[in-house]
Amino acid sequence: MSDHFKTFWPVRPRAHNSGGGIGQILGGGTATNYEPLPIEITQNGGHHYRQAWRDDYAAVYEQRNAFGAFLGYEAIAIKRAGPCHAFGKDYPPRELYPCSEDWGRLAVSTSDLNRAMEAAKHFSQRAKQSRKARQNGSKLALRQQQKAGTADSLATSEG
């Protein structure tokens, strides 16, 4: 995997999205619509990526060079970004391919599809656990606020 490719991803790639549509991710009682990662991505250098597998949190892309020769697989944790305005353009909420700084932590390259699938499923499981912990933390904070509110109302009524 060249560093040239990894540094490309912060820039929006030319894409062919044959899956189409907007994905919906639920969290904390609200739903946010994210523009999904493209099914096919062509990088400026001619490398071509085709999604081989994905779920809500991770994906596997097959990588080929400009001539169509197989190079390997990339297993990624899908990143998400909210709406923003950058370089004079508005961007909707969207899914993002990990950048070079994320490699090894949120993405790996391998020549073996089984290893790529294992890594992607690991990324997905980790994301599900993290999300569940955040939701449980929110519920815990809400319960603590409710208890504090109950204690305050009791103190007020006694006073």
Q: Quick summary of this structure?
A:
With 159 residues, the chain is an alpha+beta fold. It contains 2 helices and 12 strands. The strands form 4 sheets. A 6-stranded antiparallel beta sheet has the order 1-4-5-6-7-12. Strands 2-3 form a two-stranded antiparallel sheet. Strands 8-11 form a two-stranded antiparallel ribbon.
Task: Describe what this molecule looks like in 3D.
- This protein is α+β, with helices and mostly antiparallel strands.
- It has one domain (3-151).
- It contains two helices and twelve strands.
- It has helices at residues 3-8, 113-158, and strands at 14-16, 23-27, 30-34, 40-42, 48-54, 58-64, 70-77, 79-81, 84-86, 89-91, 94-96, 107-110.
- Strands 1-4-5-6-7-12 form a six-stranded antiparallel β-sheet. Strands 2-3 form a two-stranded antiparallel ribbon. Strands 8-11 form a two-stranded antiparallel ribbon.
- β4 (40-42) and β5 form a beta hairpin.
- It is flat and about 65 Å long.
Biggest sheet: strands side by side, in what order? 1-4-5-6-7-12
- Shape annotation: flat
Distance between the termini: 69 Å
Question: How many discrete domains?
Answer: 1
Mean pLDDT: 79
Classify the beta-strand content into a percent band: 25-35%
Sequence of secondary-structure elements = HEEEEEEEEEEEEH
Query: How much helix is in the residues?
Result: 25-40%
Number of helices: 2
- Given as residue ranges, the uncertain stretches (5+ residues, pLDDT < 50) are 1-30, 150-158
Q: What's the total number of strands?
A: 12
Secondary structural class: alpha+beta
Largest sheet: 6 strands, antiparallel
Radius of gyration: 21 Å
